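Reviewer 2 asked us to include a model.

Predict the structure of this chain.
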Amino acid sequence: MNRLTNNIFAATFFFLALFLCNPVVAIEKIVINGLFKDKAIVTIDGKQRVLKKGKASPEGVLLIEADSKQAIIEIEGKQEVYTLGSHIGNTFKKPTSGKKLILTPDSGGMFNISGTINGSNVRFIVDTGATLVSMNGNVAKRLGIDYKLTGKESQSYTASGKSKIYIVNLKKVKVGDIELENVRGAVHDGNFPVVTLLGMSFLGKLDMKREGRIMELEKKY
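Predicted model (structure tokens):
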């Protein structure tokens, strides 16, 4: 009887030790904040973690692989592909398609992002100092915007001085899952700006938050 009791005690101790060494953590929410080669910056239930390839977080979230565009993450034994700004709920089936975007700066501190204008691909720089979504004449022509015919001639005052611009209506501007219609834009008749500026005619219609180096954009309802 004593031997049986000892065996039961030993088995109980083993499973208790196993449980304590591998605690089960109920994860409610994960946000993908930054993606890099073999590394991802995520927020797990309000705690920021840096996931490295092949190493699990204290919550058991495992990064399988990652690059600047997407990451393969294993949660509760299931692997899924996630992109920047993905919000993962407690079902862990798919990233949600909410109207929110998380941005991280480049090495120069600028927020670069790919998007579309009237359905065509455009590279943006987030610029809260720009009144309108602003592009150069070459970009406008590529997008099929006849700014001299449909735009209203005006003047722009920058650090370089006064320049001629054309105020146009952009039918659709989209970044991530956020799309706005009828956005005012400015076309500079020349090669400036080199990269299209995502200005306040778009940003002003969103909720903008900054937390450290992270910028969050959310569409107002």
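Residues 11-24, 91-98 have pLDDT under 50 and may be disordered. The two ends are 70 Å apart (CA to CA). We have added this to the supplementary material.
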